[in-house]
Amino acid sequence: MIYTIxxxxxxxxxxxxxxxxxxxxxxxxxxxxxxxxxxxxxxxILQELAINSTAWGFVxxxxxxxxxxxxxxxxxxxxxxxxxxxxxxxxxxxxEDEETEINGQGPAISASEKAALLDKVSHISAxxxxxxxxxxxLQLDNQFYLEIAQLVKQLGAQFVIDTTGKxxxxxxxxxxxxxxxxxxxxxxxxxxxxxxxxxxxxxxQKLLTQGAQNVLVSMAGAGALLVTPEHAYQCNAPKEAVKNxxxxxxxxxxxxxxxxxxxQDPVASLHQGAACGSATAFSEDLAQKAKIQEVYQKIKITQxx
Length: 305
Ligand SMILES: Nc1ncnc2c1ncn2[C@@H]1O[C@H](COP(=O)(O)OP(=O)(O)OP(=O)(O)O)[C@@H](O)[C@H]1O
Ligand SMILES: O=P(O)(O)OC[C@@]1(O)O[C@H](CO)[C@@H](O)[C@@H]1O
What we know:
UDP-N-acetylmuramoyl-L-alanine:D-glutamate ligase; four-stranded mixed sheet; 22% strand; Tagatose-6-phosphate kinase; 1-PFruKinase; Ribokinase-like; PfkB_dom
């Protein structure tokens, strides 16, 4: 079974308008609400791929009830810890020229609410994988991801972590199955800038040395690189009008891990991950199955090392 952990889920309030002007009243051309948060997005894409997952996280207040109701409409398996604070609302402004996001802090999580989530993790089995993604709400620090990673490894299972900075680096010695920094996040980890692919591969190889089993570097419209202990692979991003950049990275993780759990094949996993990422970029919401299948045909993988 795949479990996703979204410590800080959200209702994503998507506002579409021609142009965003700060300091005045802007009016939308269309607006809608989506159940959001990185792990939730991973679970939603897994569902499109007909792969079972259970979404864990902290949900609370009236916004939390609305959020849960939205997920029920998507028929997602969920098992949330109910918290006393309100689930956040993240604002995604999609103007014709650019997207602007304002993400809330999320509710404070008490010690007992945190313990309730750790208790769920303590019941997984060795064949399972736990995917932890996104920011942490108030009163949870980086230690939270580390504690989960330690617990998962004690139980003989695998984990995947999609976060940045120290929170990511601290878990590497516990051997995450895959990490997926984008190329900007990877550069930040080493306080550098990249001028060519070789430098990106070298940085990813350093993360392998520190313990990651696989490093997937996403590069938005420039595709992705997968660096494994044996090889490095590159894949393209097909060209099409981009409708949405929210959740492309989450979609890529879903495709990669979902496939890895089936066949442990890095090339097949990269192929499906890239298809899911690009298919979401070409969709208003997260990608649906038909779009993923269409985009899959346009992905080419090349072994470059
Ligand atoms: N504009 C695009 N055109 C085609 N494919 C894209 C585009 N943007 C993203 N993708 C695909 O999705 C993958 C993940 O996207 P990206 O690198 O933007 O991840 P991310 O920074 O984690 O994104 P986000 O945080 O917005 O979900 C890319 O490696 C690529 O395969
Ligand atoms: O604030 P975080 O947890 O870093 O990111 C949250 C978020 O921006 O990530 C998802 C897209 O990846 C959205 O559904 C959600 O609003």
